Amino acid sequence: MALSDISWWIWVILFLLIVAIRDVFVQKKHTISHNFPIVGHLRFLLESIGPEMRQYFVANNREELPFNRIERGWIYASAKKENNYEGFGTDRDIYANQHVFVNNAMLPYKPKENHPNLIDKTFLPCAKIMGAYNNRRRPFRPASVINVSAMSFGSLSAKAMESLNKGVKIAGAYHNTGEGGLSPYHSNGGDIIFQIGTGYFGIRDDDGNFSMDKLVALVEANPFVKAIEIKLSQGAKPGKGGVLPAAKITEEISKIRHVPLGRDVISPPNHSAFKDIPGLIEFIEKIAQLTGLPVGVKAAIGKIEQWEELADLMIATGKGPDFITIDGGEGGTGAAPPSFADHVSLPWVYGFSDLYKVFLKRKLTERIVFIGSGRLGFPAKAAMAFSMGADCINVAREAMLSIGCIQAQVCHTNRCPSGVATQNKWLQNGIDPTLKSERLAQYFKTFSKEFIEVTHAAGYEHPCQFTMRDININVDDKNLTSKLHKTYKYEKSPVAFTSMQDLKDCPHLGGKTLQS
Ligand SMILES: Cc1cc2nc3c(=O)[nH]c(=O)nc-3n(C[C@H](O)[C@H](O)[C@H](O)COP(=O)(O)O)c2cc1C
């Protein structure tokens, strides 16, 4: 009998028999396959497609984390300038614990004739100037209170980076480089905040130490770099360094980061350029002096003693950071162990309120631009953050969603299906940076417009005027809601704000393309 005479079902049975023999007698790794040959494989298959099945068919609208379907849908629709409204009223349990309410005024704020927001409904610059108090040579007023948070080229693809950078240029926002150095994809004209991590990527000598000469040269060569951020920690993995595996170091990444090809690159948990809080202040001042730029720090908050030391030293020396970025424990990352991502550092509201009080008590809040990040990329959340003392919002994953991320949560595998968080050329080739930059810009514009509308509904011209008494939060069943000043036990200090027109006329306003 020829092989072709054997019918197909005999081939199937033969195949299954081979699989069964392999499961029982050959493989030793999987007990389930051994104990339940053939059918045991179904478990692995179902487990691998489980997240997608739950996301598309099972999870309800408000169930998923980090971003539920309604939140993702709002970002997608806003980015595409589609209808982002809800019909039939809210589907949220507005009596739930931690639910946030904005107290609306009886009569909303009404912009007068020729008000900047009648000309541009999305114009929403920062009410404070970075570096004003410390008299930096090149102070910077961010032209948008909504900005792109730190994410490095390496964790995100070149196409994603280019889309974000071109997008912030259109929206007049700034783009934080993340700790992976400044790449050509960050250099499409949007305002840049250059981040310095413990690996000093792009500004390191051959031994991995910080090189001031390289930083100064970088700033001089790239006038769109408007501020420097020293990263102390991030919410998803505070106190944990990182490894960039040799396999992910392409020739391009090796050049940008100034790291050797073919070797793992370690970014340690600690900085080697300074050792303590006085050293940090000295480092900040030196960078500010030599570059002329405002210099800030980014951190996730846990213990508060060293922040108190910093604040005391700021009073004693009259020096210190021009801005502080406070990241929540709910913050995202390209990769982090769950023990860190889930447990180390406080969620944003607790961390921010603890930190702000340190500076408030010492009357230092006017010196500092406070930036918040940690799932704050929605107008009502932003209103809450501003009422607590934030002056700007940084968004990372929300920005990724706006350019096509589908929350597959595989950033750490290099297999991101949307091409946003991978170095795989095939996967990222599906991204059209021209289209995606429009999407990012449109998300920012819609966000700003809705944020301005919420602000007006509360009776204010600019969100910096929100106070702790403008927002209520459900705390528990007995005391159903409590104003923020009671929940977090402080009053935000007023921001010196005159008018939106004055912000528009400010010589230090970034995002100049917006003004033309
Ligand atoms: C893919 C990815 C890469 C990141 N890389 C950095 C980084 O290089 N430096 C940093 O300070 N934070 C980094 N973060 C944290 C974000 O900047 C941000 O603080 C955090 O995700 C919270 O913002 P979100 O809730 O809007 O995502 C990264 C986040 C993501 C998702």
TrEMBL record:
Pfam families: Glu_synthase. InterPro entries: Aldolase_TIM, GltB, Glu_synthdom. The chain crosses the membrane at residues 6-25. Residues 142-460 form the Glutamate synthase domain. Keywords: Membrane, Transmembrane, Transmembrane helix. Belongs to the glutamate synthase family. This is FMN-binding glutamate synthase family protein.
